[in-house]
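## retry 2 of 3
previous attempt timed out at serialization; input unchanged, resubmitting
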Amino acid sequence: MPGVPRPRPTAERIAFGVPPSVSEAHHRALLDALSVYLSTQVGVPVAAYRALTYEDLATRISTGDLQVAWLPPALFVELERSVGMRAVAAAERGLGVGYFSVFFSLVDSDIRTVEDIPGHSVGWVDPGSASGYVFPRLQLASYGIDPTTAFPEEVFFRSHQAVVRGVVDRAVDVGATYVHLDPSEPSKVVRAGWQPPPAGVDPSSIQWLDPFGPLPADVVAVSNKLDQVLAEKIGRAFFGIHQVEAVRLAAQRQFGTGRFVPVHERAYEILRRAMESAEGRGVEVSASLRPSLVT
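## retry succeeded, writing output
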């Protein structure tokens, strides 16, 4: 793309990609802080690059322009399967509860199960929202429902509370959001897009369908072609990121976390199984995770 630098990794440099952001100022601070910190910790110059879109990030990883990347979990599993990526660190959630994506509707709706959703209008949060777009679509695909053709109308509301309002006001039939469930009592909602409720919304008017998850965290992933020693150094560098205030704050502002932990591989199995199930039912996974119709 003209005017956009293409960081080419060499034996003397590592190219590190981070997702797109609506905040250029915060992203610039993050890129600068990450570049300096990682270069010092790894012992090799690290050039950080802000992707224009998630598609741009995936493409640059696939072509070898980027050797390391900060990835949302679904994109990580997709690239793990397609080009060979390995997670070396995971963002610490610190929620203490199970984090799921979930479809919801009004209690008087004819939508009672996930299988009832096709043919109805849907409200999403944003194409970049994990629980408000990406994972719900992957859930549909795992049921054999093609999310690119399932809906007569799709609306992006840009926030979780706005999706709730859209369903309550009957602007759409069903919405997608997040739900935190108590691990000791899985039917107990600790927090959700509708809880605490937006002003004027009665939570008892909402029914939630089969949740999808628990959802794993974002990861720092490396190409399988990257030197093993360098890969391990990158992982250790992220484990210590919380000790460097400037980097921790930049990461906290941009991604909601300033602390990283070892990767629990089993946490990503639900995504791997969902993708395999979708493909086994004839639904193309990559297309399912991309926007179809934006209203």
